[in-house]
């Protein structure tokens, strides 16, 4: 199984992703590491990325997900996956790729970004991420207000996983559906 933690910058994807991967004994892959230097520089300068900037980044993440699946390796990814088209590209096998939407209020996320140090994402871009966000349906949606360890525990429980091993695989939609 591949778990993709998705949401806007500052929603806790990396923090929760690392914790979740450690608890499950799976590798963690941060989509930030797949960005070309040009994308990082644009974001550092406060210039939002467009679909053309994101295309090679998403293709690299997709290739990594396919590699994990082909090698029958579980993995946790942290990737904004803001648009439905991005999630469709990354969901190479909907029985094996599960999205978890880390959702929270803009005020909390802005506060987190203001306190984050040493990251290339310019907090001034947060609104552009919310503008691009197409909230997913039929995925596990998790409130980011609790502490990261509680969030990781809730994801493990909701996906029917055990720490250190997969207890069962899911073939259908997971979590609660979000009404639009």
Descriptive notes:
The protein has a five-stranded parallel beta sheet. The longest helix is centred in the middle third of the chain and has 20 residues, at 51-70. Residues 165-180 have low confidence and may be disordered. It has 180 residues and is α/β, with parallel strands linked by helices. It has seven helices and five strands; from the N terminus they run E-H-E-H-H-E-H-E-H-H-E-H.
Count the DSSP helices. Answer: 7
CATH top level is Alpha Beta
- Looking at this structure, what is the CATH superfamily? P-loop containing nucleotide triphosphate hydrolases
Question: Runs with pLDDT <50, length 5+?
Answer: 165-180
**SSE ordering:** EHEHHEHEHHEH
Structural class: alpha/beta
Query: Order of strands side by side in the largest beta sheet?
Result: 2-3-1-4-5
Average pLDDT number: 85
Molecular shape:
globular
Major sheet? 5 strands, parallel
Q: What is the CATH topology? A: Rossmann fold
Which bin fits the share of residues in helices? 40-55%
Radius of gyration: 15 Å
Strand content: 5-15%
Number of strands: 5
- Write down the domain tally: 1
Any guess at the CATH architecture?
A: 3-Layer(aba) Sandwich
Straight-line distance between termini: 28 Å
